[in-house]
Amino acid sequence: MGVSALRTENLSKRYGRLLALDDLTLDVAAGEVFGFLGPNGAGKSTTIRLLLGLARPTSGQAWIFDTDATDVAAAHRRLAYVPADVALWPRMTGAEVLDLLARIGPGTDTAYRDELVQRFALDVSKPAGTYSTGNRQKVALIAAFATRAPLLVLDEPTSGLDPLMEMQFRQAVGVARDNGQTVFLSSHQLAEVEAVCDRVGILRAGELVEVASVAQLRRLHHTEVAATFTGAPPDLTGVLGVDGLHSDGATTVRFTLNGSPAAALRALADADVATIVVREQSLEEIFLAYYGQNAR
Amino acid sequence: MTATTTTAAHPQRALRGLAARQVRRGALVVTTVCAGISALVVAGYRTDALDPTALAALARNPAIRTLFGEPIALDQAGGFTVWRTGTVLAVLLGVWAMLAATRITRGEEDAGRWSLLLSGPTTLAEAVRQHLGVLAVVPVLVGAATAAAMIATGVDAPGSLLHGTGLAAIGLFFVAVGGVTAQLFVSRSAANGVAAGVLVVGLLMRMVGDGVPTLAWLRWLSPIGLLALTRPFDTNRGLPVSVLTCAAVLLMALASRLAARRDVGAGILATAGRRPARTALLGSVRAFAVRRTTRPLVAWSVGIGAYFLLLGLIARSMTEFLTGNPQFATLAAQAGFPALGTVEGYAATLYALLAVPVGVFVAVRLAAVAADENARRLTLLLAAPVTRVRLLGAEAVVAGCAALVLITVAGIAMWAGTATVQAGLGVGDALAGAWNVVPVVLLCLGAAVLALGWAPRAVAAIGALPAAGGFIWQVIADSINAPTWIRALSPFAHLAAVPSTAPAWPPALVMVGIAAAGVVAGTVGYRRRDLSA
Predict the structure, then answer these.
(1) Residues 309-338 in B contacting A (C-alpha not used; CB under 8 Å)
(2) Pairing with B329, which of A255, B132, B258, B489 sits 20 to 30 Å away (CA)?
(3) How far apart are CA A252 and CA A229, in angstroms?
(4) Spatial separation of the C-alpha atoms in residues B376 and A86, rounded to whole Å
(5) Which ipTM value was assigned to this complex?
(6) Are residues B181 and B301 in the same domain?
(7) Interchain proximity A76–B384, CB inside 8 Å
(8) Does the CB of B377 have a partner CB in chain A at under 8 Å?
(9) Do residues B425 and B347 make contact, with C-beta atoms less than 8 angstroms apart?
(10) Same domain, B242 and B348
(11) What is the layout of strands, in order, in the sheet containing A4-15?
């Protein structure tokens, strides 16, 4: 096991009677792009506030590269942060905010920063008071990516960005990954998480319910199969791994696959398969399944 | 089939309810303070026989008039109360009214809460009108409660009612001023700054108008001057208060018209567009604190400097008058201004007043830190390798140093005034007198840091308490001849009359010690608590 960029052990946070985060133990390896998912109020932002030392844990501990997260003078030398809701001093221009953040931050690559300003098409000579939500987010994103800090903590960083800027964002995450930076991305944009993340953690009601790679997540879950046959479809009832079996007309069978497909494939091979479509569920569908469980 | 119930839409009633929720607590405090102080001073008035010729001399003296307003009807409890408390209460009510007006309109809009509010059928102008309308009720309540309290304590009804009406008109005027500046500027702080400027200029115009007979007309242009011109318990004039009320109504209408002409989130005065970056003072959290303090510091320096320059200019006239009329030296002492007969005593007495605005300045600066935290502007700073203690330390040190600058400006301004009229105040004495209030200002700093650590929503109020609360406490204690231990609760009771006497080091050190304890306890709280960032 390599170095941990970010680690929590039994991290809990209670606000009065509400247990916002329950016993979170998580380990994000250096160099990884980690997606942090969960419905609203699941505890994602609470986790990030604890990681940044903005809130104090009720119990448990967090580390940033083996530095206690509460030691912000040391821990924050190795991270950069983009909040979900970026608030700036309204009279300062974008350039002034970037200058301030560069000078008190963990060190900034100003050439790359200038490049990012171009790429995100941000007019930095305007006062921040005139910026839209998306433009304020761009300021924080540019400041964070330009630091080249080994850990980037991004809390729903693209909620205000248009699709073009979203593309720039993905590209910047790619550059960060190539530089060996770790990215901790809390997001609702499942397509984005699917596109950039190596692993995801799913938080529900303050508890971590799943940590897996995107591919593993899919494998853990159903694969949808639709097959048509030239003759009569085979009887797949009771075949290992086959679920939700139903016929679609006389020649088409639909079912979902759980786990190994071997038994189902053997059963199919005995019949005359005309076409077969195998579709993995999207992260969104997997995620909705978790929402669904939550609702029940 | 499901039946849906829709709440009947009463947008205006809902708006008024929202506004009322936001002002009711402050309204209660202001009403209680204004009515309570007025009643206490009436009750504490002692009918010492005053010589009519001496009274006439007092009323003619320009310095007395400049400083305290025109002394009229001092032989009655009501007249004395108006003279003693009128300006203080007018300033208190005016400041509250304008701050509340900008808070519930521009402040809410700035925080983005009005976007949701105005997505319904309500227009911006309607929202502004309803909010200012609700707030305008408060000064009327304050005036009514003050008049009722005075009448109940046994003074004439006509004078009390006129005084109450005057206070109500002042409050209305500043609700309207805050309402107008909130339409003009995009940020609440700019709106507050300009509204406060109107108040300070009004106060200075009243002082000059009262002190210089050829400029007496200036009082007709100043809200506080108009209040004085009503002469309650004397000639009871209604015209000035009508003028003030008309001005308030016109400004209200202007606020409503301006609101109809602008976009939500925008101001009438356009914010500057593109400009080159000014990168000075961005290198550290302390430099950044200096950067954010500079503009307010300049504005406060101009206001306080002008006030103390004026006090310096009247110093000679005042001291000569009191030396010639010792009876009034006693009266002034009873009113909380002892030893005005020498220029040093005069300077010492007035420098003590300096603690109030400077203490409020410190409290407001630390309240700005709490506001930045609440608006999540500090998040990006605290995500950098900056500890909370360093951030708080930088803000507290910069606020403290800015306060020292303000104190020095006041010291030099008064010295310059006295030097112009050759009143004979040494520059060293002037600075010593001004710096004498440092312990009280530090108490404010300590209280503000304490509040930032443990009660971040009340930083301004708690931070201003030692100076503003202590001052009002002393005024009440003096007026009702309270026992020594009650007087001793105010920090002002422990300030020596520097430069006429030597500084009282032991109480000064005790105050500094209490302030330091406040800073330490506040820092501990600030380190431990969750930030709303």
Answers:
(1) none
(2) B489
(3) 6
(4) 8
(5) 0.84
(6) no
(7) yes
(8) yes
(9) yes
(10) no
(11) A18-29, A4-15, A59-64, A67-68
Rounded to whole angstroms, the Cα distance separating A247 from A254 reads: 6
The C-alpha R_g of chain A, in whole angstroms, comes to 23
Q: Domain count of chain B?
A: 2
Q: Is the pLDDT of residue A1 over 60?
A: no
- B146 — pLDDT class (breaks 50, 70, 90): very high
Q: Are residues B352 and B209 in the same domain?
A: no
Of B187, B276, B386, the CB nearest to A90: B187
Query: To the nearest whole number, what is the mean pLDDT of chain B?
Result: 90
Of B268-282, B364-378, B440-454, the range with the highest mean pLDDT is: B440-454
Interface test with B, best of A46, A51, A82, A103 (most B CBs within 10 A): A103
Last residue in a domain, options B245, B268, B291: B268
Q: B393 and B318, same structural domain?
A: yes
Residue B8 has pLDDT above 60, yes or no: no
Decide if pLDDT at B41 tops 60. yes
User: How far is the alpha carbon of B257 from chain A, nearest alpha carbon, in Å?
Assistant: 24
Cα–Cα–Cα angle for B142, B144, B146, rounded to 5 degrees: 65
- Average pLDDT of A40-49? 90
Structure-model confidence comparison of residues B479 and A294, the more confident one: B479
Cβ density class B29-45: b for 16+ within 10 Å, e for less: ebbebbbebbbbbbbbb
The answer as to whether B1 is a domain residue is no
Are the C-beta atoms of A78 and A6 separated by less than 8 Å? no
Same domain for B146 and B255? yes
Q: Tell me which amino acid residue A149 is.
A: A
Task: Evaluate whether B144 touches B162 at the Cβ level (below 8 Å).
Answer: no
Q: Is residue B5 part of a domain?
A: no
How far apart are the C-alpha atoms of B109 and B97, rounded to whole Å? Answer: 18
Same domain, B263 and B298: no
The residue assigned the tokens 């009323």 is B59
Residues B294, B251 share a domain: no
Supply the range of the domain harboring residue B36: 13-114+121-268
Share of chain A above pLDDT 70, in %: 96
Between positions 140 and 199 of A, the ones with CB within 8 A of B are 140, 143, 153
Final residue of a structural domain among B268, B302, B322: B268
Q: Report the candidate in B366, B373, B529, B397 with the shortest Cα–Cα distance to residue B460.
A: B366
The answer to whether the CB of A200 falls within 8 A of the CB of A35 is yes
- Encode pLDDT of B305-352 as tens digits: 999 999 999 888 888 887 887 777 776 776 666 677 788 888 998 899
Q: What's the confidence (pLDDT) of residue A296?
A: 34
Q: Do residue B241 and residue B295 come from a single domain? A: no
Touching check for A76 and chain B: CB below 8 Å? yes
Q: Is residue B84 within 8 Å of residue B162, measured between CB atoms?
A: no
A161 CB burial (10 A radius; 0-12, 13-18, 19+): buried
Q: Which residues of chain A lie closer than 8 angstroms to B380, CB-CB?
A: 81, 83, 86, 88, 97, 101, 140, 143
Q: What's residue B1's pLDDT?
A: 45
Q: Is residue B276 part of a domain?
A: no
Is B363 part of any domain?
Answer: yes
What whole-number distance in Å separates Cα of residue B179 and Cα of residue A267?
A: 79
| Start-end of H helices in B325-437 | 326-334, 343-374, 379-382, 388-420, 427-435
Contact B343, B414 (CB under 8 A): no
Give exposure, B52-87, as e/b (b: 16+ Cβ within 10 Å): eeebebbeebbbbbbbbbbbbbbebbbbbbbbbbbb
Pick from B275, B288, B385: CB nearest A106 = B385
